[in-house]
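Hi F.,

I've been meaning to write this up properly since the lab meeting, where we talked about keeping a consistent format for the predictions we share between groups. The idea is simple: the sequence comes first, exactly as it goes in, then the structure tokens exactly as they come out, then a line or two of notes. No screenshots and no reformatting. I'm using this chain as the first example so we have something concrete to point to.
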Amino acid sequence: MPEFAASTVRMKVPEDAISLPVRVSGVGLHAWAAGAAAHRVGPDDHDPKLLDALAAELREAAADSRERGPITALSYVPEPRLGELARIELSALVADETYPNMSVELLQRYLAAPTPVSYRPPEAELRTLPAGPAVRVRHAYVQDVGRDGLGTVMETCAYGIRADETWGLVLLTSWQALAHTDALCELTDDLARTVRVTA
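Output, unedited:
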């Protein structure tokens, strides 16, 4: 059993965020997404096209996040008519035989490694959080590149947090709406300060 299994990890859920059912077995995504969309839109807006579009996006977001198996995943939807603005995931990273000791340096190497699809070099800086020492990394990627060589820029703001010598946490916010970069980085900073680990 992983070392972190005996620990409780908590993080504040921001207003306008929808918790995705990534660790709940037996939840049918179609019914869940329809209910979550109706709850987020509220009782005053009965536009079926809006509800269907948001439900489809939430269903896709939940299925996508489930593939990575985070501790928790959130769809950030401040304006339902515009759909998901950002995805927020909190995941555990456990030391193994290759890397037997978790460290901030290891988390930085993991999060700040340039990739062939990096849009610009990652920016990393060390931080201290209530949950432990951390590294904050901003990165941008180009994804879904077409035959014309053009693609979509995906930005991320991540925190690698060392819980103890055996495991750490990765808080990752990702988005494509580049006009909201500063606000979403600030949101990630705020969330990182709310992460708590108790034995």
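Notes:
Helices lie at 29-41, 48-68, 104-111, 181-192.
Strands lie at 8-10, 17-19, 72-76, 86-94, 118-129, 132-143, 152-164, 167-175, 196-198.

If this format works for you, I'll send the rest the same way.

G.
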